[in-house]
């Protein structure tokens, strides 16, 4: 029989085995660090600032896999919320991680229900097309990524938390949304904008941080492989000092600190999100905003701020793309009041039809070219996209797995650390022919329109 004394020892043993936070940047977030392996490549060139209606710089920092109620108990998050606006009705889009990251820049998660290696076709547009159309600079900063524009599946290096332990995988491709899209991964100039944290330190010191930024901590600092307390320690060491650095945060900077998804798949996907930075009005700091938002609100809010065009996808679906309220109030955008039972269930995974779902495959469709986004500009459509293949004329979903096929944009047989394959370049018409060649069709009944 197991004694009560032994049972009482278990929490202490587990606590002793839990990793303790160690900053990979012992001299602060603006100092380069040998722990990151990758040397910096000099700072980005400074670009002319394109003024926005509410902010001139937008920076988002993503943390991993934590329920709203758990995050709300963390001292770091509580203290940061006092400096900004806590979004109490913010929701992720699905599970697991990768589809949320993909959707945040592409306006859809394409039916993806896993964290596999995907290379989304080059003719699928992203927020980077919208930004560059207005000459707005951008970058993605990835902690522990070894080199700029790195495209491999993951990266493993010596374990800086425990030098006697085996090497550790601190960086993963799935948390780097730009590189998921062929329109970025096949364009060398765009790849140079996917940078590591040593580059970030140099860019901050040179006052060369772009106007749009995506920041991904490594797999322990983002709570993915640890917990909320570990992530809180990282925020105290990295984000908090930067909030008082005018090269990172000035009076025209908006910072979104958010989670990619919650941890509990059996409840709706509410996440803890805070709007920070000098662009937050003083009278709103320490307040709550109960407006319904999703990751698509990131796109619509950026579009509204700079009067951008849109992607013609879920960024133009008003139900799931409310603009952050203090921005909407300034620019005159009318949000929808989505509350209670009208809040969609977005904790579903793997059963949403799409071009990245082998069980319910449909080809990539054209965006809604007649849609109007929060920025009021035209829908961006890549020149080589088949605009006739709209969702209304798509073939019924088919089960490619049953026919021993994979989706065209999937990359199989990836060896960790192996070079990334070229991006998928098939057109929607190619994908439609593939779908038509599979005999077993599945009905898509009961799937909410906004999730297609």
TrEMBL record:
InterPro entries linked: Alkaline_phosphatase_core_sf, Phosphoesterase
Keywords, sorted A to Z: Hydrolase, Signal
Signal peptide positions (record): 1-15
GO biological process: phospholipid catabolic process
Any one GO molecular-function label of the UniProt entry: hydrolase activity, acting on ester bonds
Protein name according to UniProt: Acid phosphatase
């Amino acid at each position: 029989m197991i004694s009560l004394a032994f049972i009482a020892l278990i929490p202490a043993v587990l606590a002793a085995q839990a990793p303790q936070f160690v900053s990979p940047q012992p001299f602060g977030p603006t100092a380069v660090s040998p722990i990151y392996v990758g040397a910096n490549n000099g700072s980005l060139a400074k670009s002319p600032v394109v003024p926005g209606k509410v902010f001139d710089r937008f920076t988002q920092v993503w943390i991993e896999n934590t329920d709203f109620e758990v995050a709300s108990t963390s001292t770091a998050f509580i203290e940061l919320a006092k400096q900004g606006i806590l979004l109490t009705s913010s929701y992720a889009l699905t599970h697991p991680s990768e589809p949320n990251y993909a959707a945040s820049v592409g306006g859809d998660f394409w039916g993806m229900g896993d964290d596999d290696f995907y290379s989304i076709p080059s003719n699928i547009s992203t927020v980077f097309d919208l930004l560059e159309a207005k000459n707005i600079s951008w970058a993605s900063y990835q902690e522990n990524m070894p080199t700029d524009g790195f495209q491999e599946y993951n990266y493993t290096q010596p374990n800086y938390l425990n030098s006697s332990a085996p090497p550790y995988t601190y960086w993963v491709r799935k948390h780097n949304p730009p590189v998921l899209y062929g329109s970025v991964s096949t364009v060398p100039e765009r790849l140079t904008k996917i940078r590591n944290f040593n580059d970030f330190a140099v860019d901050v010191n040179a006052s060369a941080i772009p106007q749009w930024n995506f920041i991904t901590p490594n797999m322990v600092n983002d709570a993915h492989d640890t917990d909320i307390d570990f992530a809180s320690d990282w925020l105290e060491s990295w984000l908090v000092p930067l909030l008082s650095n005018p090269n990172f945060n000035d009076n025209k900077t908006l910072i979104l600190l958010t989670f990619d998804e919650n941890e509990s798949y059996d409840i709706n996907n509410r996440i803890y999100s805070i709007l920070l930075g000098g662009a937050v009005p003083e009278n709103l700091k320490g307040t709550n905003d109960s407006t319904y938002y999703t990751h698509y609100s990131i796109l619509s809010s950026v579009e509204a701020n700079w009067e951008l065009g849109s992607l013609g996808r879920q960024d133009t679906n008003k139900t799931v793309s409310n603009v952050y309220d203090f921005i909407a109030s300034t620019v005159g955008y009318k949000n929808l009041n989505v509350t209670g039972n009208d809040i969609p269930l977005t904790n579903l995974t793997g059963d949403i039809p799409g071009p990245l779902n082998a069980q319910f495959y449909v080809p990539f469709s054209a965006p809604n070219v007649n849609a109007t986004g929060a920025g009021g500009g035209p829908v961006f459509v890549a020149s080589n996209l088949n605009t006739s293949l709209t969702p209304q004329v798509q073939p019924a979903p088919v089960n490619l797995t049953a026919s021993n096929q994979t989706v065209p944009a999937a990359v199989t047989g990836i060896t960790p650390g192996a070079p990334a394959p070229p991006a998928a370049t098939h057109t929607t018409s190619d994908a439609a022919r593939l779908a038509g060649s599979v005999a077993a069709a599945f009905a898509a009944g009961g799937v909410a329109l906004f999730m297609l």
